[in-house]
Write a structure and sequence with these properties.
- Helix content is 23%, strand content 31%.
- The protein is of the alpha+beta class and 199 residues long.
- It has one domain: Hypothetical Protein Tm1070, Chain: A (Sandwich), CATH 2.60.290.11.
- A hairpin with a 4-residue loop joins strand 3 and strand 4 (75-83).
- It is globular and about 50 Å long.
């Protein structure tokens, strides 16, 4: 009986240690994240924030390349921002990500934000040859209009969705951002908040 109890305890210990080792070895190797925004640049609506951290798994900094689309599926802004290990990047939707839109409109209220993680700064947020690197984590706040007749807004925060970065999507983002930078004459380039500072 004692031997069976000992074997049971040994087996339980092995399973627990094995599970812990497995959990430590499983990471998120995503390099591509997507989220949405709504009620941006809207009177009386709170601003929205995209927050990105570098989990520190790589020895050096990573770059978060932003691609901001309006609800007509047109790229409006793109840029690449540095995030050092254990650093925090906070970007305002109204002040950084939609303040200098390619179409020179400030009233963009709905759209999609895509971010690529790379180990080198992207040139005009393009050209990721051999530099895609996991290690960034992204959250975004969302401003929702209340439907209870109060006329106010509610703010939620969610983890951005990990997505698959296919070669066609990667190429399309690079080409569109290149054209936005080339044709925009200064418009269409988002700005980066200094790291570990709020906007």
């Amino acid at each position: 009986m004692k031997f069976r109890v000992f074997l049971f305890q040994l087996l339980a210990t092995v399973l627990i240690l094995g599970s812990a080792a497995l959990a430590q070895n499983v990471g998120d190797n995503s390099v591509y994240f997507v989220t949405y925004f709504s009620n941006g640049n809207t009177s009386s609506a709170p601003d929205q924030t995209v927050r990105i951290i570098n989990d520190g798994d790589t020895a050096g900094p990573l770059w978060a390349s932003f691609y901001v689309f309006d609800d007509s599926e047109e790229m409006e802004e793109c840029c690449s921002c540095e995030v050092t290990p254990d650093g925090l990047l906070s970007e305002s939707l109204n002040k950084q990500l939609t303040a200098s839109t390619f179409s020179a409109r400030s009233e963009i209220s709905r759209g999609v934000i895509k971010v690529i993680s790379s180990s080198a700064p992207a040139i005009e947020a393009t050209n990721y040859t051999n530099t895609l690197a996991p290690g960034l984590r992204m959250w975004a706040t969302h401003t929702q209009a209340k439907n209870n007749g109060s006329g106010g807004f509610a703010v939620t925060e969610t983890l951005a969705a990990d997505s698959n970065l296919g070669s066609t999507e990667k190429s399309n983002l690079e080409i569109l951002c290149g054209w936005v930078n080339y044709l925009g004459s200064g418009w269409g380039v988002c700005s980066c908040t200094p790291e570990d500072q709020d906007f």
